[in-house]
């Protein structure tokens, strides 16, 4: 599977949306340099309140551009970075990846997918009804979360808009993604 980096974003404060950037620096074990979620331990404010010593499994947030197209078809106007993601990809089924899948971005950076983003009420504060639009049900009635995946940085490097994204699957048996 090969895709592309469509857009990049970061924000040094804890706001819902992130600011577009032409390139990002990813640092091993820490995340996106200059982003509020940068660090070895959890940085998500509600999780910090519960236990600030938890490992940061949410160093990088990725969303597939195909979701933005789907949302546009449903009447929502969402630009890359506006749902808090650092990396917007194109051509990769992020939600179909197993836990532990590795994503190589550009020449050096490698991410490991840790799980799904669990959408929260902030999505509806951004645009009313958006939370329901990023949730679905599969044929068995199980909840499907479509608001992207979370990852940790295994190898740092510079990532630029337009860079290739390649996928390396972990050894089987594959484990389905769960919210982190």
Please characterize this protein's 3D structure.
- The structure is a single chain.
- The chain is mainly beta and 180 residues long.
- The protein contains 4 helices and 13 strands.
- The strands form 3 sheets. It has a 7-stranded mixed beta barrel with strand order 1-6-5-11-8-7-13.
- The longest helix has 9 residues.
- It starts with a strand and ends in a 12-residue tail after the last strand.
- The relative contact order is 0.26.
The name of the CATH superfamily reads: PK beta-barrel domain-like
Q: Tell me the number of helical segments per DSSP (H or I, 4 or more residues long).
A: 4
Radius of gyration, taken over Cα atoms and rounded to an integer in Å:
15 Å
The order of strands across the largest sheet is 1-6-5-11-8-7-13
Please state roughly what percent of the residues sit in beta strands, choosing from under 5%, 5-15%, 15-25%, 25-35%, 35-45% or over 45%.
Answer: 25-35%
CATH class value = Mainly Beta
Structural class computed from helices and strand pairing = mainly beta
Poorly predicted sequence stretches spanning 5 or more consecutive residues: none
Secondary-structure element order, N to C: EEEEHEHEEEHHEEEEE
Got a strand count? 13
- Secondary-structure arrangement, i.e. CATH architecture: Beta Barrel
Write the layout of secondary structure elements.
Elements lengths: L1 E9 L8 E3 L1 E5 L3 E2 L12 H6 L9 E5 H9 L13 E4 L11 E4 L3 E8 L5 H5 L3 H4 L1 E3 L5 E3 L3 E7 L1 E4 L3 E5 L12
Parallel strand pairs: 5-6
Antiparallel strand pairs: 1-2, 1-6, 1-13, 3-4, 3-12, 5-11, 7-8, 7-13, 8-11, 9-10
């Amino acid at each position: 599977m090969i895709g592309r980096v469509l857009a990049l974003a970061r924000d040094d404060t804890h706001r819902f949306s992130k600011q577009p950037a032409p390139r990002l620096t990813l640092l091993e074990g820490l995340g996106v340099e200059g982003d509020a979620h940068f660090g070895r331990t959890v940085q998500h404010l509600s999780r910090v309140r519960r236990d600030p010593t938890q490992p940061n499994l949410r160093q990088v947030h990725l969303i597939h551009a195909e979701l933005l197209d789907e949302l546009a078809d449903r009447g929502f106007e969402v630009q890359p970075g506006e749902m808090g993601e650092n990396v917007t990809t194109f051509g990769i089924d992020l939600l179909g990846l197993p836990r532990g899948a590795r994503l190589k971005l550009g020449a050096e950076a490698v991410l490991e997918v840790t799980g799904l983003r669990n959408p929260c009420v902030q999505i509806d504060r951004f645009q009313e009804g958006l939370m329901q639009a990023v949730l679905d049900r599969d044929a068995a009635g199980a909840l499907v979360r479509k608001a992207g995946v979370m990852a940790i940085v295994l190898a740092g490097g510079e990532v630029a808009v337009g860079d290739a994204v390649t996928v390396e699957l972990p050894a089987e048996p594959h484990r389905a993604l769960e919210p982190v």
